[in-house]
Amino acid sequence: MAVKAQVVEDWYVLVRVSGELDAYMAPELRETVEQVLDGGARWLLIDLSDVEYLDSVGLGIMIGAAQRASEREGDIAVVCTRPNVMRVLEVSGTKELLNVVGTVEEGRAKLSAARDKAASQAGRGEG
Amino acid sequence: MSSLKPDVLRFDLPCQEKYLQVVRLALHGAASRAGLTIEDIEDLTVAVSEACNNVLYHAFDEETLRTGDPRMLITLHISDGEVRVEVEDQGHGFDPKHVLAADQSELPTTQSYGLYLIRAFTDEMKIESAPGSGTRISFVKRVSK
């Protein structure tokens, strides 16, 4: 499995994952996500397009990332294109929580809308 | 293959994450002999991995994992149109009533996703365990109609 993270447009982090996301490989994703969040990121886009297998361990890492991002008024989105991976997300009932979308562009748009909303609420709070 | 007498395959593996992929590969080949569809096999693969995760994370204490030789035993019963699976350990066991109570809530908690997925992806599931007596999780996947 490979995990690569990059800051995009100066405001969100794109984490691309490939291979089988099971208990053996998941620590690599956990470490990357923790580094990104510890570094202050609030907006995270996890791309699972090249992930061939997902189980509850990988799911747990993404749920934890969503919770941490939410605590700092950010959010995550997850890109998923493979039917078997999508089935795990659907059956586990986490599709909505993780903002699952079909493309990186959709994920970016989802995070951008959430970011605009957060900025608007913060503005109202200040006013 | 006779539909009356299943072929039985047994895997006795070290309790280590690196063998999960080996289990999935073996299962994939074996389950295809039962005539399961690709989707059935993918569901079963998740179920078996989750049962193994249960052994990896809940059966043994840290000391045993580090210094002992804890094992996970996986038995596949391959029949026409059906695969029956047992995943066993000789770990410290637990009271299944506690797990099943949590598992039957409508939305799983993070800790119970594994058992929730086994139940959702298979046709029957049973947990046999008691404190100090190890655990056996059994489940069946039948070919989709």
Set down the secondary structure blueprint.
The complex is a heterodimer of chains A (127) and B (145).
Chain A: E1 2-8, E2 12-21, H1 26-38, E3 43-54, H2 56-71, E4 75-79, H3 83-91, E5 100-101, H4 104-126
Parallel strand pairs in A: 2-3, 3-4, 4-5
Antiparallel strand pairs in A: 1-2
Helix pairs in contact in A: 1-2
Chain B: E1 7-14, H1 20-33, H2 38-58, H3 62-67, E2 71-79, E3 82-89, H4 96-103, H5 113-121, E4 124-129, E5 135-142
Antiparallel strand pairs in B: 1-2, 2-3, 3-5, 4-5
How would you portray this structure in words?
The complex is a heterodimer of chains A (127) and B (145). Chain A has 127 residues and is α/β, with parallel strands linked by helices. Chain A has one domain (2-126): Transcription Regulator spoIIAA, CATH 3.30.750.24. Chain A is built from four helices and five strands. Chain A has helices spanning 26-38, 56-71, 83-91, 104-126; strands spanning 2-8, 12-21, 43-54, 75-79, 100-101. In chain A, strands 1-2-3-4-5 form a five-stranded mixed β-sheet, with helices on both faces. The radius of gyration of chain A is 14 Å and the shape is globular. In chain A, 43% of the residues are buried. By secondary structure, chain B is of the alpha+beta class. Chain B has a single domain (7-142), classed as Heat Shock Protein 90. Chain B has helices spanning 20-33, 38-58, 62-67, 96-103, 113-121, and strands at residues 7-14, 71-79, 82-89, 124-129, 135-142. Chain B has a five-stranded antiparallel β-sheet, with helices on one face. In chain B, α1 (20-33) runs antiparallel to α2 (38-58) and α2 packs antiparallel against α5. The longest helix of chain B is centred in the first third of the chain and has 21 residues, at 38-58. The mean pLDDT of chain B is 88. The A-B interface holds A 20, 22-24, 53, 55-57, 59-60, 63-64, 83-84, 87-88, 91-93 and B 17-18, 20-21, 24, 39, 42-43, 45-46, 49-50, 52-53, 56-57, 107-108, 110, 113-114, 116-117, 120-121.
